[in-house]
Amino acid sequence: MKAVKIIDNIYWIGAVDWDVRDFHGYSTNRGTTYNAFLIIDEKITLIDTVKSSLKAEFLERLRSIIDPAKIDYIVVNHVEMDHSGILPEMVELIKPEKIICSKMGHKALVEHFHQTDWPYEIAEPGRDLSLGEKTLSFIETRMLHWPDSMFTYVKEDKLLFSSDAFGQHLATSERFDDQVDQAILVEELTKYYANILTLYSPKVKKLLETVKEIGLEIKMIAPDHGVIWRSNPGLPLQYYEKWSDNIGDGSALVIYDTMWHSTEKMAKQISAGLEEENISVKLLNLRYNHRSDVMREVLNADGIILGCPTLNNGLLPRMAGFLMYMSGLRPANKVGAAFGSFGWSGESIKLLHKAMEDLKFDLVDPGFRVKYIPETEDLEKCVELGRAVGRKIKER
Ligand code: FEO
Predict the structure, then answer these.
(1) Strand partners, 107
(2) Which of 134, 145, 219, 256 lies at 20 to 30 Å from 319 by C-alpha?
(3) How many other C-beta atoms are found inside a 10 Å radius of the C-beta of residue 297?
């Protein structure tokens, strides 16, 4: 396995994880990559490392360019273990002159690996670090998505090492954006933002404003996951701008779980009501759709209609799990509504309603519930609920 040159004297030396299917609760159906990079200059510099299970692959690529002992600096853009898992072994092997990280990165590295005597150097935002021919500068991106996160920029190449930002969980033998199916690329870029960054949208917005203010020219973006944006680095920036502004595409989602098909019948009629208002709608049964795929859809939708029957005075477990996941990610600026069937106590729609109220969704009040099995007139009311949500979406 060989390194891949991405620009003069800079190489990709990461690893491809074809098998990973679960990334802390996010379904990675297309696997992922852990990207690491090597800059050959007077000061040879390693940017990030890989997950520990892929150490051999990383080392083979690194050794195809240079003996690791010749590396001078290690830059740690992010301490999460998929990028720092082999750091202690690399420090041992390389004996670097400097380990460059953010202030919070220093704290996190010590808290992870308990090594206080490594040669840390805090990357001061705005201060350049010359490697010889190339110059690095650093941008603190605190909470995007960890406190330690930062970007590293190569001034001469206008190349941004963006850590997790602009990444995609996509295992491929190709390394660049122009070599892969564009629809799949955008789908995985979307899913990544939806499941990792939605919560931090205000910070993404601020960061994009800072990038504009300082006039940072970007010719290439090399994230820590997926392909490198060499042909169209503007594309992920445009999408991030749209998502951080919480701008939807006018569509709606009916997300539900069902026990004996009553809530399912209601979901279908609500969907029909939305269609009558010419709203594009997707029916997402949580039994068949993974929460992280549903979140990808939530990112772009304007209307979120949640349906669940009552079980043991609460929700069905799949809806309870989804609700907790979505509430943590805090999607914003949505129209919402709740529905569901019940037998005797009927708490489910109150719980759904409350969760969406907490997210400040613009709610169609008070939602609609049906005892046991919906009759014709109940189903007509479901159509009307769908139409009411549709009208609210169109008024925005
Ligand atoms: Fe790819 Fe936050 O680690």
Answers:
(1) none
(2) 145
(3) 18
Which residues sit with their C-beta closer than 6 Å to ligand 1? 78, 80, 82-83, 145-146, 164, 224-225
24-63 residue pLDDT tens = 999 999 999 999 999 999 999 999 999 999 999 999 999 9
Does residue 348 share a domain with residue 206? no
Q: What is the pLDDT of residues 321-337, one digit of tens each?
A: 999 999 999 999 999 99
Q: How many helices (H) and strands (E) does the chain have?
A: 12, 24
Q: Residues 77, 156: one domain?
A: yes
End-to-end CA distance of the chain: 53
**Residue 348: which domain range?**
253-395
Q: pLDDT tens digits, residue range 35-44?
A: 999 999 999 9
The verdict on 170 and 131 lying in the same domain is yes
Whose C-alpha lies nearest to ligand 1, atom 2? 80
* Pairwise CA distance, residues 251 & 47, whole Å: 40
C-alpha 119 – ligand 1 centre gap (Å): 23
Q: What is the CATH number of the domain that holds 276?
A: 3.40.50.360
d(CA 320, CA 94): 48
* Cα-to-centroid distance, 378 and ligand 1 (Å): 47
Burial of 278 (0-12, 13-18, 19+ CB in 10 A): exposed
Q: Are residues 74 and 213 in the same domain?
A: yes
Determine the atom of ligand 1 nearest the C-alpha atom of 81: 3
- Six-digit token pair at 161? 């090492």
Which atom of ligand 1 is least distant from the CA of 163?
1
As beta bridge partners, residue 229 has 221
* Of the residues 193, 210, 244, the one at which a domain ends: 244
Q: Which residues are identified as catalytic?
A: 24, 78, 80, 82, 145, 164, 192, 225
What pTM value is reported for the model?
Answer: 0.97
Atom 1 of ligand 1: nearest residue by CA position = 164
Do 335 and 282 fall into the same domain? yes
